[in-house]
Design a protein that fits this description.
It is built from eleven helices and eleven strands. The protein has helices spanning 2-35, 53-69, 84-91, 105-114, 149-158, 173-185, 197-206, 216-224, 272-286, 289-296, 307-327; strands at residues 42-46, 73-77, 99-104, 125-135, 137-141, 164-167, 190-193, 211-212, 228-233, 259-267, 301-302. The protein has a six-stranded mixed β-sheet with strand order 2-1-3-10-4-11, sandwiched between helices. Strands 8-5-9 form a three-stranded antiparallel β-sheet, with helices on one face. Helix 2 (53-69) crosses helix 9. The model has no long low-confidence stretch (mean pLDDT 92).
Length: 333
């Protein structure tokens, strides 16, 4: 019996040594790959078809971040499902920093609040950093007899169910933001959903609907030509793009901080060193006057954050819209 044990002990010790050396080798390889990151092309998924504002933002960020990192970044347009397909593809990718995505209020804010998704917007992702946000603006058809928000609320209360508002679709920011306002102001308006913001604008301008809550950037061309009237914008402060429009907060409606925001995320469990490097270089991009000016022309305020701050922002945004969706019994199949 003792002879058998004597033979087994060296075998067991050999197994331990082999395992230990294997783990050390794996750790060394991982540390080495982290230290040399990036040493191949990075894929940046844009959750929309080519063309449009989000795609333009993705390419502008990719170009500058590529220069900073000294490595190519390819923008891969993956549309469908309101960004859900792109988010799923990112969540399932290897967490090595070579697959990232432009996460935004749809994929990591409103959709998780109103839909059953095949991904967890918090657990399945690594927040890299915020890029920026564009406020939403409450606009009305000029035929509505209200010059400001106070008059609009008073008119709506005197004419219950008469007013309508258009959105880019059920469960979108343009929908949930307006439902939040209806709750806060105690008014009622009929929701008219569209398949996108363009047809919603068409009917607002034509007088088929009375109000909307689009992004400020989308509304600016119509504000410049006085075809719509702006009453208030979301966010903590006025936008430099349209400084004469007061915030909801100024007008007595706190908590209207929902905005069309954009950031960069990756799959869960990206090594901290890689996350730190990406965040550092992204924030350098945001600090350049050239990029700042380009984004300002699109009514976007740049919001550099640490990965931890960005992760907290996402959690708070999901919680905000989840509360609105539950209060208004909004659930999209």
């Amino acid at each position: 019996m003792s002879n058998i044990l004597n033979r087994q002990v060296p075998i067991f010790l050999s197994y331990l040594l082999i395992t230990a050396f294997g783990l050390m080798g794996s750790f060394h390889a991982s540390a080495q790959s982290t230290a040399t990151y990036p040493n191949k092309t990075i894929r940046l998924i844009a959750p929309v078809a080519a063309g449009g504002g989000l795609d333009h933002l993705a390419r502008a960020v990719a170009e500058r971040l590529s220069r900073n990192l000294g490595q190519s970044i390819i923008v891969d347009n993956v549309s469908g499902g309101g960004g859900a397909i792109a988010a799923q593809a990112t969540a399932k990718a290897v967490p090595d920093g070579y697959t990232l995505m432009i996460s935004y209020v749809g994929t990591h804010g409103t959709n998780p609040a109103v839909r059953k998704l095949n991904y967890d917007a918090i657990k399945d992702f690594t927040p890299i950093g915020m890029i920026g946000a564009t406020p939403n603006v409450l606009i009305i058809n000029t035929n509505v007899p209200a010059k400001n928000l106070t008059e609009f609320v008073a008119y709506a209360k005197k004419n219950p169910a008469k007013l309508t508002y258009g959105t880019a679709g059920p469960g979108t920011l343009t929908h949930l933001g307006m439902e939040q306002f209806k709750m806060a102001s105690g008014i009622f308006m009929v929701h008219v959903p569209y398949r996108g913001i363009s047809p919603a604008f068409t009917d607002l301008l034509g007088g088929q609907t009375d109000a909307m809550l689009p992004t400020l950037f989308a509304a600016i061309p119509y504000l410049k030509t006085n075809r719509v009237r702006a009453l208030a914008i979301t966010g903590q402060k006025r936008s430099s793009a349209e400084p004469n429009i007061p915030t909801f907060k100024e007008l007595g409606y706190p908590g209207f901080d929902g905005q069309q925001w954009y950031g960069i995320s990756g799959p869960a469990n990206i090594p901290d060193a890689i996350v730190h490097k990406l965040n550092t270089e992204l924030n350098k991009v945001l600090a350049t006057p050239e990029f700042n000016q380009e984004m300002s022309s699109e009514a976007m305020t740049l919001l550099p954050m640490t990965p931890q701050q960005f992760g907290t922002y996402i959690k708070e945004d999901i919680a905000r819209w989840t509360n609105v969706a539950k209060s208004r019994q909004i659930e999209i199949e």
